[in-house]
Amino acid sequence: MSTLLQDLRFALRSFVRAPRFSVPAILALALGIGATSATLSVVRGVMLEPLPYRDPARIVTIWETNPGRNIRRNVIAQSNFVAWRERTRSFENLGMVGPARLSLVIGNTPEEVEGMFASSDVFTILGVKPAIGRAYTSNEDVLGNDRVIVVSHDFWQTKFGGRADLVGTTIRANGVPRTVVGVMPEGFTLVGQKASFLVPYGWDIERLRSAQGRGTSSGIARLRDGVTVEQASAEMRNLMVERQQETPRLNTGWSAVLVPVHEQMVESIRPALLILTGAVLLVLLVACVNVANLLLARSTVRQLELGIRAALGAKRKRLLAPLLSGRLALGAAGGVAGLALAFALHRGLLALVANRIPVPRLEQVALDLPMLAATMAIALLTGVLFGFVPAILTTSSIDETLRDGGRHGGSRKSRRVLSALVVAEVALSLVLLAGAGLLIRSFIRLQSIDPGFRSEGVLTARVQTAGVRYQAPGARGAFYNDVLARISALPGVEQAAGVTFLPMGRGLGMRTGYWRSDRPQPAPGEGSSADIRPITPGFFKTMGIQVVAGRDFTAADQTESPRVTIVSETAARRVFPGEDPIGRRIDVFIGDPGPPYEIVGVVKDIKMASLDVDAFPIVYLPHTQLALGLMTLVVR
Q: Where are the beta strands (DSSP E) in 423-546?
């Protein structure tokens, strides 16, 4: 032990005496180890940490799929959900979840808050109970008994100051009083999604059974003990075949797909994390090769000293000991510096990602004791492993050094290894540079794609009208018209308008079938579908979307006026190929058998969901003729 301590002290003195060697070596190791540690902490927290649910391997999410329309996962039809609950035997519990936005009045201030609709089965499926209070029951799922709410721990702390008597109090949500019955545990997420609150659907089963469309929800279920995902998937596919025969208009071409909950949470972020992990491991490898190169070059200086010690009777084992001790000390120094860098990178990554990229389970990412231990183990391992070869080469060429009279420059074997290390370092660096170049080129190509609208100088604000206050026909339209008129009168405002679902915005939209009115409705599973976007007059001008034919909506397009629509170029080509669509009529399957819509304008295509996919058909409707409770204001 005393010999080891002596060797370590000698190594530390050597580092101090040779800062031009030790500082670059420690910095190279710190960069590689710090980046690796920070990245692995994210991978561990997001992908490897066990889910905070009871027996999560038995939990699956349920989506509908339509391969013929290239729809991989879609929200589920409400009537299908009822049939699944009544007929499936593979599930211990089956529930439904979907996004919810409520206008909550906290104190005297209304605030729109994002949460989730969740049936009462969800608490049992996940095996999670509120930390305070209780979960709502199946009786409270039903319309008329549903005026309850469970809030998140974070919402309880930030909006209510963590007051102990919150459970049992009443808050107004969309103008309706709801009783707070519980507070969820700290860090709770619903299948990776943070939710400030959970509320029951308030459903009427008979209305769900006869519903003709698809809502905004997905299914979630717990498999029975002994039932595999493959067995449950087969049962669901067979059931959807039955549903196609029972309701062909709704279900032709549709099936169901089950996704394990862990896969659902991490699959979207997994490719990016794997690429990032590969990149930082390459950086670590380059750093290690660089340090090995420095060690080998430095070892040639000590070959004469080691040769003299060997001539005086020192054994090779004793000659290797101080060299490997020095490598160990170098790895430890690099590890300490790498830890400091890892903490900085960790905080920077979390701050950068938190509100920009939807990374699931981000709250699980931490540089805790296991990660710190792993970091130091990586540091010591790299220091010894990549210092071992130079040490062996140095001690194996002592005789050659003595024969050459102690001239520096190293043995022929050392020079060959040194050259090989240089080649390896350059090759690895080129791989990193090539990857960075491809990433930059992809980014430049994305930047050059025209989305079809101009977002520069545009501010947005989402507004939701409480249902009980704006139930009268035309009430919502009048409200938005008044708000936009007042905003347009503000100094500096050039134009203001509204749209239900913002291009490139988060969340779900509306998509349904449409067809030309002068022809029969297409058979189930055939025909075209389009995104439906209720808008206010002036939306196209505000967003810089070009009107290529016809006109914009006007104040004359009211609820009682003849139905009108403006379609995108792709939507027009789908149903009127080679024809002028202005003045023609289309039917839109929105659930009402009302009169058709007359096309009064055609606008340029826009990228509604993503820059890397082709423009999808869009049918724009006057907000007064399809009044929804949600509107995003756009102000230029």
A: 459-464, 496-499, 511-516, 528-535
> Which uninterrupted H or E stretch holds 99?
strand 91-106
Using CB atoms within 10 Å of the CB of residue 400, give its burial: 0 to 12 exposed, 13 to 18 middle, 19+ buried.
middle
pLDDT digits (tens, 9 = 90+) for 140-182: 999 989 999 999 999 999 988 888 899 999 998 887 899 999 9
Distance from C-alpha of 539 to C-alpha of 545, rounded to nearest angstrom? 8
CA distance 387 to 323: 8
* CA distances in angstroms from 294 to 66, 222, 258, 387, 421, listed in the order given: 59, 57, 54, 10, 10
The angle that helices 316-353 and 19-43 make with each other, rounded to 10 degrees, is 50
Residue 568 to residues 448, 607, 608: CA-CA distances in angstroms? Answer: 21, 11, 11
Tally Cβ neighbours within 10 Å of residue 146.
18
Instruction: For residue 620, give the nearest of 532, 548, 515, 550 by alpha carbon.
Output: 532
Of the candidates 516, 524, 491, the one whose C-alpha atom is nearest the C-alpha of residue 619 is 516
Stronger pLDDT, 61 or 71, i.e. the higher one = 61
Angle, helices 78-87 vs 229-246, to 10°: value is 120
CB atoms within 10 A of CB 310: 18
Contacts of 126 (CB under 8 A, 6+ apart): 53, 54, 59, 190
pLDDT of residue 467: 59
Q: Are strands 71-74 and 59-66 parallel, antiparallel or unpaired?
A: antiparallel
E strands, 159-240, where? 170-173, 176-183, 197-199, 218-223
Closest residue by Cα to residue 516 from 611, 439, 598, 452 = 598
**3-state secondary structure labels for all residues of 115-176:** EEEECCHHHHHHCCCCCEECCCCHHHHECCCCCEEEECHHHHHHHHCCCCCCCCCEEEECCE
User: What does the block give as tokens for 8?
Assistant: 């370590």
pTM: 0.78
Asked if 304 contacts 406 with a C-beta cutoff of 8 angstroms, the reply is yes
Paired strand residues for 94: 221
Strand partners of residue 223? 91
Interval 414-436: pLDDT, tens: 566 666 767 777 777 787 778 77
Length, in residues, of the chain: 636
Which contiguous run of DSSP H or E holds residue 39? helix 19-43
- Residue 41 pLDDT > 60: yes
Give CA–CA dist 390/299, Å, rounded.
7
Residue 376 has which token pair? 């130091």
Contact call for residues 204 and 143 (beta carbons, < 8 A): yes
3-state secondary structure of 541: helix
Percent of the chain with pLDDT over 70: 80
Rounded CA separation 634/456 (Å): 11
What's the sign of the alpha-carbon dihedral 167, 168, 169, 175?
A: positive
Task: Tell which wins on pLDDT, 444 or 499.
Answer: 499
Distance separating alpha carbons of residues 131 and 143, to the nearest angstrom: 26
